[in-house]
Amino acid sequence: MPASLFRESLNKSDVGEAAPVADHRRSGGILLATEESVNPIHFILLALLAPSLAPAQETPTRYFEPHRAAADTPVASTGSPGRLSVQADPKVERLMERFTSMKHAQPGFRVQVFLGERKLAEDAKRAFLLKNPESPAYLSWFAPNWRLRVGDCRTRLEAERLLRDLKPLYPGSYIVPDEIEMPR
User: Fold this and answer.
1) How many whole angstroms from its chain centre is CA 73?
2) I want to staple 121 with a disulfide (CB 3.0 to 4.6 A). Which of 13, 71, 146, 177 is the partner?
3) Which of 144, 165, 162 shows the shortest CA–CA distance to 154?
4) What does the alpha-carbon distance between residue 131 and residue 124 come to, in Å, rounded to a whole number?
């Protein structure tokens, strides 16, 4: 309907007569009319209605969706404590007991503090365990000598800390890669 108002303002004369074309000029792809061909009231109405006639801009597609917390988060009740009962096959229970009783070696590091005869290695182990009861000590035979390695360090950094603590007591100690036991 606004487009017909614009045409009417351009065509002041009767329907049978053609509108004057000489008064129009083209500027930037928009057809402009001169003062004589456009009624000012119609032009103001057109200017007010033009934004509603233009196609609405679409919102750009969002590729990132922010994290939204779940609305139905359960709330802990302060009532009586609940009970949990686990029903497992006896075979599974036996398998778990057998798994925990076995040693599971993994790659790691130890600090070797002694290499020599058996009697001296056993004495060194006994003396080490008296001073450090929380740290494990392992004797192994490496022909023709016995070696005493201590600690179960998962990383080289842990082994470096242990070596730093043991260096004053065992000046010849050094870090060796070894298979360690899982901590219990």
Assistant:
1) 22
2) 146
3) 162
4) 11
Neighbours of 49 (CB within 10 A): 15
Q: Is 34 exposed, middle or buried (0-12, 13-18, 19+ CB in 10 A)?
A: exposed
* Digit-coded pLDDT (tens) for 10-46: 665 444 444 454 444 544 445 555 555 567 787 787 7
At residue 4, φ and ψ (nearest 5 deg) are -70, -35
Q: Say if pTM beats, i.e. exceeds, 0.85.
A: no
Domains by residue range for the chain, with CATH: 2-53 (no CATH), 104-181 (3.30.70)
Q: What is the CA radius of gyration of the chain?
A: 45
Phi, psi of 70 (to 5 degrees): -65, 135
